[in-house]
């Protein structure tokens, strides 16, 4: 079973998923990880009093930290917004601008697939929320995004099935912030 949080890491660098899956390494996390945890904890507190009117969506119910699972994937979505005719999965990011990386988009698509099954409603959008005042941006999901998502999932399954240490095409800037940077002996 694929942990949805590993999808983003696989796109950042496939070796991260390899290390988590096949090696008994307890990495030292960079400081931004604890800052992200604090930000999420603050959002969980704010969730109790929020009405989400700012989104201007036909909301029926908002689920916070919803655990989702099927036979192939599992994970906890930050927010699942159930609207009249669709669901929108949202993620909190500890950043000032709503910039969506490819890894975050693939992760949100995975949550959307599971939330769609769970609530029996379609999805076509995802949302990124940043800052403490619900700054947000909604992104459309295209057919190209879904094709890319399938390719990523197939690549993850292939790596796990074959147990082959993957090539990394991560940039040096990515390697510098990686919690496993001391375990790749072919990277600078």
TrEMBL record:
Its cofactor is Mg(2+); Mn(2+); iron-sulfur cluster. InterPro entries: CRISPR-assoc_prot_Cas4 (IPR013343), Dna2/Cas4_DUF83 (IPR022765), PDDEXK-like_dom_sf (IPR011604). Mg(2+) or Mn(2+) required for ssDNA cleavage activity. Residues 5-184 form the DUF83 domain. Its EC number is 3.1.12.1. Pfam families: Cas_Cas4 (PF01930). Keywords: Antiviral defense, Exonuclease, Hydrolase, Iron, Iron-sulfur, Manganese, Metal-binding, Nuclease. GO terms for molecular function: exonuclease activity; iron-sulfur cluster binding; metal ion binding. Gene3D superfamilies: 3.90.320.10. Belongs to the CRISPR-associated exonuclease Cas4 family. This is CRISPR-associated exonuclease Cas4. It comes from Campylobacter porcelli. The lineage of its organism: Bacteria, Pseudomonadati, Campylobacterota, Epsilonproteobacteria, Campylobacterales. The gene is cas4.
